[in-house]
């Protein structure tokens, strides 16, 4: 990412290839980085045997919100970080998946309790601030993101056909949580939701990269009133909710697109929090020259485990430093690093999913100017929205981190 | 699409874009222009080094582009100490006092040229020759491909120029005027750092500059453009502020669910 790259900013098409067989990792993990600020109350200890869907910990502030095991196995590691925040909780899976006895169906009207106890509550995130909502919160509307949300993400069109009534049942669960509308945001084509049902609206969005992000949908269809909130949820979680409603079982599988840099992405189901090295054929001796990334090519993070909200992963070759890079770096070298400038350019103008002028936003975030960020509309953004700015900007700042800092201060003042 | 992910990359691109006009200017004007080039480059680089040393920071080398622009826009008959003074003013007060390239809101070359034209009356700035204008075109293409000039700003400038000339004289501007403004529009007016940061703001920024060029046309085309660019870039933060307020108001007005 350093230097003068004659890179064509290629759009990667959504992964629409045939869905492969389930790839079962040896380990799965719940990673603290997915739940910023979460302080867990642990319900299990290292060495405990857990079933799929069994609660591993709850949120200290909201004990009703359970975080559950994606599959059955033995708790291998529990690591807490600074301030007793969750660092990582690893479960070593059983060799053969254990079939849980089916429990009973979720009754109509019992969606909220079922989702809280069933481990699917963390699938929702509220705007503003992008956090898991409080158990008793009632949002103005819920936005289901049924689009390939980033470059190269799985195309729901290729996957949802098999989900059948599961998606509709999931939408019923979602609709119980709000008095307002449930927007199913998708690309052109057949509607995923059976039409004609009350409060469930299918909204079509065009293709460009930024249109896949929920912030774009919210900005188009109406941001929450001051003091109110809207929620977002991914389409695969809605399928899992449908599964929970029909069978009472926790559905810990997600279809992900795996990019190994060679040709088309592989599309296959795996478990939430899967260990990425188990999913890829790692190149043997050249292993050192690759990194495993959870998330999109732009904005993903180097990780050992698949992130809770990520629908793609990649094996990224560590790029050789080109002559141009070295020359450019040499020109700027000598002396201690200091903040690098934000140089405006045209590519930034299309980098945000909402109509916020990017350069003023970057300046406001870089200096932590909460007031200016607020005026620009940063309250409605989350980290994924500014990932492209981080990718494009000359300053090398991580705007996701800067945005979170500003959001934390807005949240504190609210 | 060319992507420079590093400030040094932007400097390299802009310097590359400037090479043809500089070569044409030096070749056409002879020894005087070579001396101006040497003095402008040297002065600019010395200030870069001085400030880098004072801040214990890496040298950014960005003032190379300032030196190159001055080599084209300063006529060869200007006394060399005046060139050095103007370059110092531009680099120090137009750029380095704010923290260097990308932290200020002025183009250092514009500041230097404005200083030169203002302090030494009778200095008719150069860079209006058709050969220089032609040599600026490859640079424009390169900068456009890299996203380092904004088409809205240049379109606004052309529009402002046409509208103001129509109002003033009832005719469209002469092609010769357009040619003489070509170099300045690309390298002085369209500096991304000095430009407005919002899309609507860039239109307005261009319109203001275009109108001002017509208003100041008696000074000679390049002088008029330098002052127009200076005033327009001073107005740019205000324009941005107003645009952002209008955007915020529109956003608040749309706050409802369908």
From TrEMBL, chain A:
It comes from the Bacteria. Residues 23-93 form the NqrA N-terminal barrel-sandwich hybrid domain. Signal peptide: none annotated. InterPro entries: NqrA (IPR008703), NQRA_2nd (IPR056148), NQRA_N (IPR056147). Pfam families: NQRA_2nd, NQRA_N. Residues 112-249 form the NqrA second alpha/beta domain. This is Na(+)-translocating NADH-quinone reductase subunit A. It comes from Defluviimonas salinarum.
Automatic annotation (TrEMBL), chain B:
Pfam families: NQR2_RnfD_RnfE. Keywords: Flavoprotein, FMN, Membrane, Phosphoprotein, Translocase, Transmembrane, Transmembrane helix, Transport. The chain crosses the membrane at residues 35-52, 59-78, 98-120, 132-151, 157-190, 202-219, 225-248. InterPro entries: NqrB/RnfD (IPR004338). This is RnfABCDGE type electron transport complex subunit D.
């Amino acid at each position: 990412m350093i230097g003068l790259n004659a890179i064509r900013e290629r759009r990667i098409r959504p992964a629409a290839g045939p869905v492969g067989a389930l790839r079962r990792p040896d380990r799965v993990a719940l990673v603290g980085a997915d739940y910023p600020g979460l302080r867990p109350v642990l319900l299990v200890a290292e060495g405990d045997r857990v079933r799929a869907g069994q609660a591993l910990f709850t949120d200290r502030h909201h004990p009703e919100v359970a975080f559950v095991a994606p599959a059955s196995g033995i708790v291998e590691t529990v690591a807490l970080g600074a301030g007793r925040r969750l660092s990582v909780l690893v479960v070593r899976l059983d060799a053969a998946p254990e079939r849980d006895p089916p429990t009973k169906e979720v009754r109509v009207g019992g969606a909220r309790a079922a989702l809280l106890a069933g481990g699917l509550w963390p699938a929702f995130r509220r705007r503003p601030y992008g956090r898991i909502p409080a158990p008793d919160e009632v949002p103005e509307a819920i936005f289901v993101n049924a689009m390939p949300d980033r470059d190269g993400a799985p195309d729901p069109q290729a996957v949802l056909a098999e989900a059948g009534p599961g998606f509709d049942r999931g939408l019923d669960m979602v609709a119980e949580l709000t008095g307002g509308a449930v927007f199913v945001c998708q690309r052109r084509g057949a509607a995923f939701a059976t039409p004609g049902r009350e409060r469930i609206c299918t909204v079509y969005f065009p293709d460009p990269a930024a249109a896949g992000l929920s912030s774009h949908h919210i900005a188009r269809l109406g941001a929450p009133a001051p003091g109110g909130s809207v929620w977002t949820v991914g389409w695969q979680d809605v399928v899992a909710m449908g599964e929970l409603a029909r069978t009472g079982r926790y559905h810990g599988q997600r279809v992900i697109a795996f990019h190994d840099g060679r040709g088309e992405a592989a599309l296959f189901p795996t478990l939430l929090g899967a260990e990425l090295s188990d999913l890829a054929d790692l190149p043997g001796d050249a292993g050192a020259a690759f990194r495993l990334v959870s998330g999109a090519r732009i904005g993903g993070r180097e990780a050992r485990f698949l992130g809770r909200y990520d629908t793609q992963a990649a094996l990224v070759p560590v790029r050789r430093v080109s002559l141009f890079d070295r020359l450019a770096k040499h020109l700027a070298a000598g002396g201690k690093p200091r903040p690098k400038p934000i140089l405006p350019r045209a590519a930034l103008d299309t980098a945000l999913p909402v109509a916020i002028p990017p350069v003023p936003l970057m300046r406001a975030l870089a200096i932590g100017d909460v007031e200016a960020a607020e005026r620009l509309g940063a309250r409605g953004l989350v980290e994924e929205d500014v990932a492209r700015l981080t990718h494009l900007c000359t300053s090398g700042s991580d705007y996701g981190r800067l945005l979170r800092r500003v959001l934390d201060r807005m949240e504190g003042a609210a | 699409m060319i992507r420079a992910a590093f400030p040094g990359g932007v400097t390299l691109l802009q310097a590359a874009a400037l090479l043809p006009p500089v070569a044409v200017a030096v070749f056409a004007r002879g020894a005087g222009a070579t001396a101006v080039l040497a003095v402008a480059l040297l002065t600019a680089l010395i200030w870069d080094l001085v400030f880098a040393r004072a801040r214990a920071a890496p040298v950014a080398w960005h003032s190379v582009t300032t030196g190159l622009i001055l080599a084209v826009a300063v006529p060869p008959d200007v006394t060399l100490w005046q060139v050095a003074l103007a370059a110092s003013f531009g680099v120090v007060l137009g750029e380095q006092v704010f923290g260097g390239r990308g932290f200020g809101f002025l183009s250092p070359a514009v500041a230097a040229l404005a200083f030169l034209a203002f302090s030494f009356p009778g200095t008719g700035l150069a860079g209006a020759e058709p050969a220089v204008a032609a040599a600026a075109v490859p640079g424009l293409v390169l900068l456009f491909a890299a996203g380092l000039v904004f088409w809205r700003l240049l379109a606004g400038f052309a529009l402002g120029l046409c509208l103001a000339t129509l109002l003033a004289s009832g005719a469209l501007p002469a092609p010769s005027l357009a040619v003489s403004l070509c170099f300045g529009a690309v390298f002085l007016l369209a500096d991304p750092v000095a430009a407005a940061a919002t899309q609507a703001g860039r239109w307005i920024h261009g319109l203001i500059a275009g109108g001002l060029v017509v208003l100041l046309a008696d000074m000679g085309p390049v002088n008029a453009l330098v002052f127009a660019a200076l005033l327009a870039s001073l107005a740019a933060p205000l324009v941005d502020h107003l645009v952002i307020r209008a955007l915020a108001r529109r956003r608040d007005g749309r706050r409802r669910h369908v």
